[in-house]
Amino acid sequence: MLVWYELYDDMTNAITREKQLKAGSRRKKVAAIEAQNPQWRDLYPDLF
Questions:
Q1: Spatial contact of 44 and 2, defined as CB atoms under 8 Å apart
Q2: Which of 10, 24, 42, 43 gives 28 a disulfide partner, CB atoms 3.0 to 4.6 angstroms apart?
Q3: Cβ of 4: how many Cβ atoms within 10 Å?
Q4: Taking a C-beta distance cutoff of 8 angstroms, is the pair 28, 17 a contact?
Q5: 8 Å CB contact between 1 and 42
Q6: Domain parsing of the chain, residue ranges
Q7: Whole-angstrom Cα distance, residue 26 to residue 46?
Q8: Residue 3 CB neighbours (<10 A)
């Protein structure tokens, strides 16, 4: 289930952001998800 994503035009920026997220705590990751998707709705169908 996809509950959160970010889009980037540049691969370098995307990789940098991914590393930042992976280094962060679970609490920060959950906060980021709940800020954008408080109901934890599956966002995958919205991509297409």
A1: yes
A2: 24
A3: 15
A4: no
A5: yes
A6: 11-47
A7: 25
A8: 15
Can you tell me the distance from the alpha carbon of 22 to that of 36, in angstroms, rounded to the nearest whole number?
A: 18
Q: What is the DSSP letter of 10?
A: S
Are 33 and 42 contacting, i.e. CB atoms less than 8 angstroms apart?
A: no
* Residue 15 amino acid letter: I
Asked whether 3 and 42 are in contact (CB, 8 A), the reply is: yes
Tens of pLDDT, residues 9-32: 999 999 999 999 999 999 999 999
To which residue do tokens 């297409």 refer?
A: 48
pTM above 0.85, yes or no: no
For the residues of 20-35, what is the DSSP string, one character each? HHHHS-HHHHHHHHHH
Give the residue among 17, 48, 45, 13 at the shortest CA–CA distance from 32: 17
